[in-house]
Design a protein that fits this description.
About 20% of the residues lie in helices and about 35% in strands. The protein has helices at about 110-115, 170-180, 195-205, 215-225, 240-250, 275-290, 310-320, and strands spanning about 10-20, 40, 45-50, 60-70, 75-80, 85-90, 90-95, 115-120, 130, 140-145, 150-155, 185-190, 205-210, 235-240, 260, 265-270, 275, 300-305, 325-335, 345-355. Strands 1-4-19-20-18-15-12-13-14 form a 9-stranded mixed β-sheet, sandwiched between helices. Mean pLDDT is about 85; it is low at about 5-45. Bound molecules: S-adenosylmethionine. InterPro entries: Glyco_hydro_b, SAM-dependent_MTases_sf. This is Class I SAM-dependent rRNA methyltransferase. Keywords: Methyltransferase, Transferase.
């Protein structure tokens, strides 16, 4: 099980990778759009289970891939231990619960006491709680940066701060493939939250569609677009249930070159639609495959706070991308304590599986 925490200066590290060279020849892509044969779930109204197994050669695979993010000027994991973590987000030091920190803190107590904000409350990953500001009362937001993109950090009641810095490694990978495509690229960012990935994609030159169920989160994302000075970039902001949106895009024949999906374990669409990751993920990945363009570049799935290994989402992604060629890379996103101040221990935040074109 992984939890979420943050950081940025990203360096990708592959540990003991296992690779195979079973790339599908380009012709093997005729299985791209499997005949729909879906059952409707009574709970979600969305198509689940009984998906036909796509034909075609499985993509190459590379795993485990451990993508690591380390500290930089905008963000650092300074220390962790005793079930807590101490991070720096822009100007502020923040203390939050971290169930994986089974060890003792390495920095002296005085470093922890210098925190600007402490989250207290439910130690559950998604539990509610309150922020305490020991030095001076802070506003809800503060200026943050990611790789030169300005946005607002936020103290939210679910302990999150408006950005998941561990995603930076995926964002850099995405930006590189947009920039090197040499053609217009369409990106779909599902479960897009405060929109940092959408801004990274737009800055790299993509036309972006951002989907989230929360009107509030989409409002924050729009604010971030202004804050970043990227208001002239083509971003469609959509408040919608992600599954419904994908199904509708399939019916409309709209297609994307890159799809990012970072679903929670449990969530609700704006009309109360229920999202359960273990129920909905197979249909979601199948639906996303159906709306990939004829020259797709990537599909990136992250998952967190679930009782599963990356092997599970790896096998799902490989099965669903059969016949597409390319490679499926899977593993964990980790954040390492800043080695210049802390002990250099790693905290895993999420599992991921990404398909990348050959
Ligand atoms: C953890 S956030 C994703 C973080 C984001 N990828 C990032 O890096 O900033 C999960 C998001 O999923 C959204 N969500 C939950 N259920 C949803 C649903 N059924 N359809 C669309 N979005 C949903 C939430 O509103 C939330 O913003």
């Amino acid at each position: 099980m992984t939890s979420r925490s943050g950081n940025r200066r990203k360096r990708d590290k592959t540990r003991s990778p296992r690779t195979t060279a079973k790339a599908a020849p380009p012709k093997a892509r005729q299985a791209k759009k499997p005949t729909p044969n879906l059952e409707k779930s009574a709970d979600t109204g969305s198509a689940t289970r009984r998906l036909p197994r796509p034909d075609g050669v499985l993509p190459e695979e590379a795993l485990p891939l451990i993508l690591e993010v380390a500290g930089n000027a905008d963000y650092a994991l300074l220390d962790s231990g005793d079930g807590l973590k101490l991070e720096r987000y822009g100007p502020y030091r923040v203390v939050r619960p971290e169930g994986q920190a089974l060890w003792r803190p390495a920095l002296p107590q005085s470093e922890w006491e210098a925190a600007d904000a402490i989250f207290t409350g439910d130690t559950d990953e998604e539990g509610m709680g309150r922020w305490r500001f020991p030095k001076a009362a802070l506003g809800e937001t503060w200026p943050m940066k990611h790789d030169g993109i300005n946005f607002l950090g936020r103290f939210t009641s679910f302990r999150h701060v408006g950005v998941f810095p561990e995603q930076a490694t995926h964002w850099r990978h995405m930006a590189e493939s947009i920039e090197s495509a040499g053609r217009p690229v369409r990106v779909l960012n599902l479960f897009g939250y405060t929109g940092i990935a959408s801004l990274v994609a737009a800055r790299a030159g993509a036309e972006v569609t951002h989907v989230d169920a929360s009107k509030k989160a989409v409002g924050w994302a729009r604010e971030n677009q202004l804050m970043a000075g990227l208001e002239d970039k083509p971003i469609r902001w959509i408040v919608e249930d992600a599954m419904k949106f994908v199904e509708r895009e399939g019916r409309r024949g709209n297609q994307y070159d890159i799809i990012l999906l970072d679903p929670p374990a449990f969530g609700r669409g704006p009309k109360g639609e229920v999202w359960q990751l273990f129920e909905g993920l197979p249909s979601m990945v199948a639906g996303c495959r159906d709306i990939l363009s004829d020259k797709p570049l990537a599909m990136v799935l992250t998952a967190y706070s679930i009782r599963a290994s990356f092997y599970a989402i790896h096998a799902l992604m490989r099965e669903r991308m059969a016949g597409m060629g390319g490679r499926v890379e899977s593993g964990e996103l980790i954040i390492r304590e800043d080695e210049t101040v802390g002990a250099g221990r790693a905290i895993s935040t999420s599992l991921f599986s990404r398909w990348v074109a050959a």
